[in-house]
TrEMBL record:
<dbReference type="GO" id="GO:0016740">
    <property type="term" value="F:transferase activity"/>
</dbReference>
<protein>
    <submittedName>
        <fullName>Phosphotransferase</fullName>
    </submittedName>
</protein>
<feature type="domain" description="Aminoglycoside phosphotransferase">
    <location>
        <begin position="186"/>
        <end position="347"/>
    </location>
</feature>
<dbReference type="Pfam" id="PF01636">
    <property type="entry name" value="APH"/>
</dbReference>
<dbReference type="InterPro" id="IPR002575">
    <property type="entry name" value="Aminoglycoside_PTrfase"/>
</dbReference>
<keyword id="KW-0808">Transferase</keyword>
<dbReference type="InterPro" id="IPR011009">
    <property type="entry name" value="Kinase-like_dom_sf"/>
</dbReference>
Length: 412
């Protein structure tokens, strides 16, 4: 039977031991010997494509190393960027394989991953030559074939002692690079506290200044309130009207059935609950018109910086565009409703913030819309534990789906 007939998107191939011969062949083609491997990360687009990464131990002629391998399989043939990687075929199945950091969709990653290369780039930013040993790189997040963010810490000797400066390096796809740079510059010109673009490169690296303060994702656990609900609404309302003229990004709720299917593929036992939730959300929002307010598009506690009880920074403005204010506030509610691995004291503080903030949000937007949109975002977040191969991903997934049900039940 055709491999693509019973596994069109390659999800079975890439998430089981069936992938072992492919990984071994790819490593051998590169001149090494695969010693061991384990699944690290999965991005599934049911019936369309699957991308996975694998941590691997490889013996090379120069010695043994830990490596990260990436593989993509598609139901409907190659994309232009697939051609940048090695393509392996077995009958009618093709798989695209690359060795980190040579991600075929992120050309700048091959530079951003090495202190020697980043030292050259950052020397121009700080205005003095930087030797590689004065640059430390930490990977903050990597979504294969989508994006990566690294923290680059430079250290310069001064008479007063070492001076450390932190930059964040966004590694972007070519199609998005110009748009993302423009969005940062637009918001800064309007006084919105987005990061300053310190450098931009031809291979799609965006070097950003570090924001002041601390992430709200840390501050939510502090004894004192990190900011007010009114301030959260204010930072959104401070975005300029030009944002509403940007291309529209569909709200999370438009994709609720897609995300429900992704979660169902990982945990079939949740199919009935997810189908019911997707129906309730879609039907409940069917008559709500598209909005034309400036929106952030992915507004949650990890994107907001605070200091002294005030908001002082707004991150990841790649997704700004027209929408409804309920989209952004619902995104924040969803993320706060699904914070994982908290102790009892932390959980109590987050519950208190939600109990304090949500009534204020209810005055700004329709309460039913807020909860339905929040539930849709929660379902999208339910794909995370499996995608990241968390140790207890099944239990975490069930807990997230429980949170979506709680939100929907509040408006039935």
């Amino acid at each position: 039977m055709s491999a693509t007939l019973h596994d069109p998107d390659g999800s079975r191939l890439l998430t089981t031991d069936q992938v072992a011969p492919l990984l071994a062949a790819a490593v051998s083609h590169a001149g090494g010997t695969l010693v061991s491997w384990s699944l690290d990360h999965v991005d599934a687009n049911p019936s369309q494509s699957t991308t996975a990464t694998y941590t691997a131990v490889v013996d090379w002629p120069f010695g043994r190393r830990n490596e990260l391998l990436g593989v993509s399989a598609r139901a409907h043939g190659r994309t232009p960027t697939d051609e940048r990687a090695e393509i392996f075929a077995d009958g009618d199945r093709e798989a695209v394989v690359w060795l980190y950091p040579r991600d075929p969709d992120l050309p700048g990653l091959a530079r951003a991953a090495y202190p020697e290369e980043m030292a050259k780039l950052l020397s121009g930013v700080v205005g003095v030559p930087l030797p590689p040993e004065r640059v430390r790189l930490d990977m903050i997040g990597y979504r294969p074939r989508r994006r990566a963010v690294l923290r680059a810490t430079t250290e310069l000797p001064t008479p007063q002692g070492p001076r450390r400066t932190v930059f964040y390096v966004k590694v972007l796809r070519e199609a998005l690079f110009g748009e993302v740079r423009h969005r940062h510059e637009m918001l800064r010109a309007a006084g919105v506290p987005a990061p300053r673009v310190a450098a931009a490169t031809g291979d799609c690296l965006l070097v950003l200044d570090e924001l002041p303060g601390i992430p709200l994702s840390k501050a939510i656990f502090d004894p004192e309130p990190p900011c007010t609900a009114e301030q959260l609404i204010w930072v959104l309302d401070s975005m300029p009207r030009q944002v509403a003229a940007l291309p529209r990004r569909a709200p999370w709720s438009d994709s609720v059935r897609h995300y429900a299917e992704m979660v169902t593929q990982a945990m079939p036992t949740l199919e009935h609950r997810l189908r019911w939730l997707a129906d309730e959300i879609s039907n409940g929002l069917a008559s709500v018109p598209l909005g034309d307010e400036p929106t952030h598009g992915d507004f949650h506690e990890g994107q907001i910086h605070v200091a002294g009880g005030q908001i002082c920074g707004l991150l990841d403005v790649d997704t700004i565009g027209p929408g409804r204010r309920a989209d952004d506030l619902a995104c924040l509610v969803a993320h706060l409703s699904t914070v994982q691995r908290m102790n009892a004291q932390q959980a109590a503080r987050v519950r208190h913030l939600l109990a304090t903030w949500v009534p204020v949000f209810d005055e700004r937007v329709d309460p039913t819309e807020l909860r339905l949109r929040a539930a849709a975002v929660v379902i999208s977040l339910a794909t995370g534990p499996y995608r990241g191969q968390e140790q207890n991903w099944q239990a975490e997934t069930v807990g997230i789906v429980d949170a979506a049900e709680t939100l929907v039940s509040q408006v039935l």
